[in-house]
Amino acid sequence: MASGRTAFAGESQFAIPARHRLGWHFLDIALTRMRIRHPEIHRSDRTGWLRASVLGANDGIVSTAGLLVGVAASGVSAQALLATGVAGLVAGAISMAAGEYVSVSSQADTERADLTLEKRELAEDPHNELTELALIYERRGLTAALAHQVAEQLTAHDALAAHARDELGITDTFRARPVQAALASAGAFSVGALVPLLVAWAFAAQTTVAVVAATLIALLVSGALAAWAGGAPMLRGALRVVFWGALAMAITHAVGLLFNVRV
Ligand SMILES: [Zn+2]
Predict the structure, then answer these.
(1) Which end is more exposed in the chain, N or C (fewer Cβ atoms within 10 Å of the end residue's Cβ)?
(2) How close is the Cα of 141 to the center of ligand 1, in Å?
(3) Residue 181's closest CA among 88, 90, 98, 63?
(4) Nearest Cα residue to 56 out of 106, 15, 96
(5) What is the CB-side half-sphere exposure of residue 159 using CA atoms within 13 A?
(6) Which residue from 3, 64, 49, 10 is spatially nearest to 231, judged by alpha carbons?
(7) Would you say residue 133 lies in a domain?
(8) Ligand 1 mean position to 114 CA, how many Å?
(9) Sign of torsion, CA 136 142 145 147?
(10) pLDDT tens digits, residue range 167-218?
(11) Cα 58 to ligand 1 centroid, rounded to whole Å
(12) CB 148 within 8 A of CB 216
């Protein structure tokens, strides 16, 4: 994360004297603003969804590949193997959707309850709430006088928003959408699950080898993509994902061999 930003800052340090000489102060200010805002917002808002979808797809790839390799090792027919893979995709997608729906809903419930309580406290005891807010800013490093001034101005601007953000840590309350989160999660899982499933369908004669190869390549790509979206080193992220995928397939393969149905 830091490497990209340092390079950017280094570049503009060279550019500053020229800009001053030419009197391009507005450009300087605009560039500084962009530099401050861009990395943070870009990472957390724009690529947050990308990272979540790639991680969901990873789940789909790993669990479906493990299922296929394990069931293939047990020696079932190609048709039974595909039926198992499709059932695994559907069950996995629904499970992801349900998990995401429950998680986002309960998070939204908790935040709503917290905000209701906060709203009542603000109405019943505004003086205490102002002191509470000022103490929060003081603990973050402001002097007592400045903390009080900041608390007063933010209270005048939007008291509930200030308490929600700085006391409760709620920034995104009204954007929590359980149904949307559930659909996105199920969709990402399905896309990932389709990779080993389609490969198993296309290479019915060499299922295990084909699924293992395709899965490791897909995980290498998705692991690197997730790391990039999260601002982490790409190779390390990719290898981590590949390791867990390979482990899953090795274990399910061993389990499948125990249940070998071939005569
Ligand atoms: Zn409060």
Answers:
(1) C
(2) 19
(3) 98
(4) 96
(5) 17
(6) 3
(7) yes
(8) 10
(9) negative
(10) 988 876 556 688 888 999 999 999 999 999 999 999 988 889 999 999 999 9
(11) 40
(12) no
- 86 within a domain of the structure (yes/no): yes
Q: Please say whether the beta carbons of 137 and 150 come within 8 A.
A: yes
What spacing in Å lies between the alpha carbon of 137 and ligand 1's midpoint?
Answer: 13
Is the pLDDT assigned to residue 18 strictly greater than 50?
no
Say yes or no to pLDDT of 162 above 90.
Answer: yes
> Cα of 247 to ligand 1 centre, how many Å?
48
Q: Which domain holds residue 253?
A: 54-257
Residue 263 lies in a domain: no
Q: What is the mean pLDDT of the chain?
A: 83
In a domain, 47, yes or no: no
* CB hemisphere CA count around 189 (13 angstroms): 23
Q: What's residue 20's pLDDT?
A: 43
Specify the pLDDT at position 157: 94
The 8 Å CB, 24+ separation contacts for 125-131 are 126/155, 126/159, 129/155, 129/159, 129/163, 130/155
Q: Give the DSSP letter of residue 48.
A: H
Q: Which of 197, 239, 228, 226 is nearest to 214 (CA)?
A: 197
- What distance in Å separates the CA atoms of residue 202 and residue 233, rounded to the nearest whole number? 34
| Average pLDDT of the residues in 213-241 | 91
Cα(125)–Cα(157) distance, integer angstroms: 18
* Greatest distance between any 2 Cα atoms in the chain: 85
> Three-state DSSP class for 96?
helix
How many domains would you assign to the chain? 1
Query: So what's the pLDDT on residue 45?
Result: 55
Instruction: Give distance in angstroms: CA of 122 to centre of ligand 1.
Output: 7
Centre of ligand 1 to C-alpha 142, Å, is 18
